[in-house]
Design brief:
Length: about 180
């Protein structure tokens, strides 16, 4: 905990241990939050869930909940094997410096060198989804047309839609202009 700094996210693999496994309760959670202003990604059980919920802004992803403690007499089943080492959380590997994106009960790890590309790509996907949803509600296209590679006609329609809505979209106007400039339509 002493190495944590503001904006860090505490990530640990407790191998999904549940009974006699929790190392994070409301005391450790408060210590993490005080140092980072963020929460945790923890492949294991947490305890003191009511106390953790009371902390406004403490965001957490964890595998399970159990009221036991990892250090019951004679039941120590946890050992620190590394700090800022590659860590596996279920099927994902996270490295120190990765961007952590948690939403709707899931979490993704984005390598730092790819973060900008992921943000830009996600903004394009967001715009395509906004356009697609609008056209689906209008009945102009079917779900099959929107959920596959778009035809040239749909791509042209999307470009026209971007131009028509450029001042009201949630993506910076300059980024939309760059996207349109690089399109061949």
């Amino acid at each position: 905990m002493d190495l944590l700094i503001p904006k860090d996210v505490y990530v640990a693999d407790q191998f999904g241990i549940q009974i006699d496994g929790p190392t994070i309760g409301d005391n450790v959670g408060n210590a993490i939050f005080a140092k980072t202003g963020n929460g945790i990604v923890y492949h294991g059980a947490i305890r003191d869930i009511a106390g953790l919920k009371e902390m406004g802004g403490f965001t957490s992803y964890f595998s399970s909940y159990h009221p036991s403690h990892h250090n019951q007499p004679g039941n120590l089943n946890t050992m620190l094997v590394g700090i800022n080492q590659p860590t596996r959380i279920k099927q994902a590997t996270v490295m120190a410096g990765d961007v952590v994106l948690g939403r709707d009960g899931g979490v993704s790890f984005i390598p730092a060198h790819l973060a900008e590309k992921v943000v830009v790509t996600s903004e394009i996907v967001r715009l395509r989804d906004m356009f697609g949803h609008e056209r689906l509600r209008e009945g102009k296209y079917t779900a099959g047309q929107i959920d596959t590679r778009w035809s040239d006609d749909i791509e042209r329609d999307f470009s026209q839609w971007l131009n028509a809505h450029i001042d009201e979209l949630p993506v910076p106007k300059s980024q939309i202009q760059e996207l349109l400039k690089n399109r061949t339509w």
